[in-house]
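Example (one chain per record):
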Amino acid sequence: MSAAKYLVAFIFSINVCFTVYMAVQFFIPKAYGNGLHAVGSTIVLATTMLLGLSTRRLWTGDSKQGAYLFFAALAVSFIGNLVAQLFA
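Predicted structure:
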């Protein structure tokens, strides 16, 4: 197994842990925050799910679709950050 495969496996394992954490945080009711907090959580959850799909595609050798999903995750994150800054 090449070093690139180990790097992808490491990124995927971190992403899986973070996705589980964000999914739990998303569905637990909170006494703080507003609608923007929910939007932010949704954007972070969507970004981590896209990154998970991207690393899975890179792991299985479909690098073209993996790269597309990676840049889609970056776009979702960037647009979400921009929206959060506009309404903050």
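Caption: The two ends are 46 Å apart (CA to CA).
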